[in-house]
Amino acid sequence: MRRLLALLMLMAIPTAVEAQHGLVLDENGERHPPTPASAMKAVMEGGPGQSRYEPVVALLRQQFDPRSDAELDAIVDELVKVILDGDVEPARHATVALILASRSDDEYEGVRHPGAVDGLVRVYESAQSDGDENTFMHLDNIATAGNVAYVADVFESTLPPPPCTPRGGAVNFKALAESGVDPDNLCPNVSEWCDAAVVLTRLDHALAPEEEVLDPLCGWGRWIRH
Known about the structure:
About 50% of the residues lie in helices and about 0% in strands. It is mostly helical. Strands 1-2 form a two-stranded antiparallel ribbon. Strand 1 and strand 2 (about 30) form a beta hairpin. Helix 6 packs antiparallel against helix 7. The radius of gyration is 20 Å and the shape is elongated. The N and C termini lie close together (about 10 Å).
C-alpha cells in the first residue's frame, strides 16, 4: 500500500451531484442500484464506465434504499479486509469509500455511516500493532474522514520520541552526542506521537506542536517518508 496516501490525494473527490452515479453496470450495460455483492465487485474489479467506489458509498450512505446497521457494518468489515489485504488498487478504492461514507450529510449525498470511520480506525490500529510502515497514512485517512478527535487523542496519549539525527549534510555528530542525542537514531523518528503531530500540523490544529519542537523530535524526513 506504499504511496497510497499520495494516490488518494490525487483522486478527485466527487461532489454530491457526482455521487448520484453510484449505480452499477450489468452485463447488458444497463445501470442499477447496487447490491452489497455488486458494489464489492466494483471495488475489487472495476470495469469500463464503472466507478469502483461510488456504488459502495451509495450503499453505506443509503442513497437508494435503507439498510440495517448490521448490513452496513458487514460492508464496512469487507472494506477493512480489502485494505488490510494490501492489494493496492482495491485497497485504494476501499479507503476512498470509507472516507466518503464518513463525510457529514452536508458534504455528500445521503446519510453518513458512523461505522465507516470506525473501519478506518480499525485499519490504523491493526497497522499499528503489526508494525506497518504506513501508520501515518492510515491516521491521516481518519482525520480526512472527519474524526480529528481520534488523532488528537493519539497525540495526547503517547509520548514524544527522543530527538533524532538528521540524515546527510554537515552533521556534527560529536556535538549531537554531547547534547545527549543518539547519533545512531537517524531521522525520521517512527512513532505514534510523530504521526499524530504531523497530521495535526497539516490541519493547523490547536494541539499541533511548533516547528522547533516537531523538527528535532521527528525530523523533516518524516514529512516525505510516504
